[in-house]
Design a protein that fits this description.
Distance between the termini of chain A: 19 Å
CATH architecture of the largest domain in chain A: 3-Layer(aba) Sandwich
Oligomer: homodimer
CATH class of the largest domain in chain A: Alpha Beta
Number of strands of chain A: 11
């Protein structure tokens, strides 16, 4: 495989962008990424767009051609990649393969989602399309309801209290304060989280990632292309993997294990030739607090049933054992679904180039984990700073 | 780049499959492809799903995880790829890159679309999402209406009569008679076509590809994997390219040229090291008769304004100058949009292994052209039979 480097990134602030359309958000992030990479738009040979619901929410498909047009570079190769809330991470994987294959030298990958002024369809109805329509969505189950089942199961099985899981929201908000891209740049207390209304028992409102609009974009390239830029150091994509699990919880062996995370992570560690201890900073997909805890375990940072202890004991803080969600995570940076996976990789990239809002000391290896559905698809992308 | 081989394919008949759901169609085609490749499902490492409108029509996204689940192989990598009506051709390109990169040895790519019992949204409204919603669809333009503009422009500019373009429908139907997968296995006369009702003047009903359900799937693999199968000959993917154009006609330099076809085809010829004369058989994306004519020109088989002469003079017939749409094309084999690009490659594959319903003598090199929107995205895939 050809080596692949990440040479620039950009993003919009996440929020309720009533004045900006889907394309405005994408183009804003893409142009920032191109500027940051110090390349020209003409260098881009392919555009990948990670997005889940533009058809249902904006009445717009064919985002590859649309975004290439609005970037002023029609002619390039382009595609939309969809894998529910993992669309961004999986789009990055496709962009990675495009460069790794040798067919493309310089590729733009952006994630975009506009959720706040849906004109065609309802956001909650669009999101449950991540699960099986015929067997699950049809029953009236909502996405938060499915996560509530996992949450309750985990608490019962391992005797864990909700306050030790809900703490993930407090953690995320604490770090979002300094992130200029974050939707919620303020802290919340555990009391606030636990006092917030039930959405689907036991999940409280403040344990849920918010609805928001946003786009993040990255430029990746081949070794030859990267070396011509003459930078002091580079950020290499050390591994990029995707794995699936059954789309619905009903078919899982264990409700408390997200096997797609286990498979994708283990494969990525082998490819990157690292062990979990080598990782300096991570972004995990905590669309609900319980998922953050599960993912810490399934990524290998804790034994099953013990992930909440890392949180409680401060091991996820900056410069602690495994600095986690220094961006503010899905809860507070925000979660415009199809763009989130790209935001996460951008956040890790900023850590490795030393420009993150909550900079971890001498971060050299970082991991971003992007999840679709309740673990139906997981993308793991590992970045490494190299000379 | 690593070499990539096509080792098996399968498809459902295209039609109104009221008794089969989206997943049923995909699984049927995928299992046929796996059987035809003489491999085991366990050999598959990644699943690509080409689909345009499952969200709008079935209320279902996340097709990667869904189809992996229903194939009984959750765990594999998976993604949905969308590029409007080119979704199938572009999904094949992504699958190709996955193997060409060296990360995957054996990949399944299937296209699927179920259009006849849309439960969420209307098919015509879903299809116009291939164009710009904010500037075009919003005006009430339909997809056939946009093609009617191109049709009228072409007739006026080059002084061509409708009967010389509408003949493409007659050509397609003639060859669909023997294709067991075709939606319409019967011939039509030019009189019938010209007497059929106007859909969007000048386009007649019988000049339009029909609405239908269907799925086609292919298995592709690396050289090592292919050689282990011990076959007498192999079908190599000699080139796979994608190009875009502006998503809307309003921004085009020339309404009668589909530049994305020109760009993608020329790049593919260079990569495959062939000229247009070397090609033995093609499938072109004639969603409307006029598009078939334009594509012959933009692929390089005729000068601009002259494509209709190939049709009229019999040069598209079996064993004539350039045998075209031996499957029955979009008009008569059918056009379940996101699956069509995969059907086309499957049809070319059958030609190269000598098992096509309208077999061209000693076909060694074939080309499939898949188009999204009115030329907003074009995928070109060239296959070559090798020892």
């Amino acid at each position: 495989m050809n080596k692949v480097y990440l040479i620039g990134g950009g993003a919009t602030k996440i929020g309720e962008h009533w004045e900006k359309s889907l394309r405005d958000l994408f183009v804003e992030a893409a142009l920032k990424a191109v500027d940051s990479a110090e390349i020209s738009l003409k260098d881009i040979e392919a555009v990948y767009v990670g997005n889940m619901s533009s058809g249902e929410l904006q009445g717009q498909e064919h985002l590859g051609s649309l975004m290439a047009t609005w970037l002023g570079i029609p002619g390039v190769a382009a595609a939309k990649v969809e894998a529910a809330c993992a669309s961004g991470g999986v789009a990055f994987h496709q962009a990675y393969l495009a460069v790794a294959s040798g067919l493309y030298d310089c590729v733009l990958v952006g994630g975009v989602e506009k959720m706040t002024d849906a004109i065609i369809y309802d956001v909650t109805a669009a999101l449950i399309m991540a699960d099986d329509y015929e067997y699950v969505a049809f029953t009236g189950a909502s996405f938060v309801g499915l996560n509530a089942i996992v949450y309750r199961y985990y608490m019962e099985k391992f005797g864990v209290k909700q306050e030790d899981i809900a703490l993930f929201a407090v953690h995320d908000h604490k770090y979002a304060v300094k992130n200029p891209y974050a939707q919620y740049q303020f802290a919340v207390s555990l009391e606030k989280v636990l006092e917030s209304p039930n959405v689907a028992d036991p999940i409280k409102l403040f344990e849920c990632a918010p609805v928001g609009d946003g786009s993040a974009a990255l430029v990746i390239c081949s070794e030859d292309f990267a070396k011509k830029l003459g930078k002091d150091f580079l950020v290499q994509v050390a591994a990029s993997t995707v794995a699936t699990d059954t789309i619905s919880l009903t078919n899982r062996r264990d409700l408390a294990t997200l096997e797609a995370t286990v498979k994708a992570a283990n494969r990525a560690y082998r490819i990157a030739k690292i062990s979990v201890e080598d990782i300096d900073v991570i972004e995990v997909h905590d669309a609900f607090t319980i998922l953050g805890v599960l993912h810490l375990e399934d990524l290998g940072f804790a034994e099953k049933g013990q992930g909440w202890k890392l949180l409680k004991e401060g091991e996820l803080e900056k410069n602690a054992k495994i600095p986690t969600n220094m961006s503010g995570g899905l809860k507070a940076r925000g979660h415009p679904v199809g763009s989130t996976g790209v935001y996460q990789i951008f956040d890790i990239y900023l850590q490795l180039i030393g420009e993150a809002p909550n900079q971890v000391d001498s971060a050299e290896i970082g991991l971003a984990q992007s999840v679709g559905g309740v673990g139906g698809t997981v993308a793991i992308n590992i970045l490494r700073r190299v000379k």
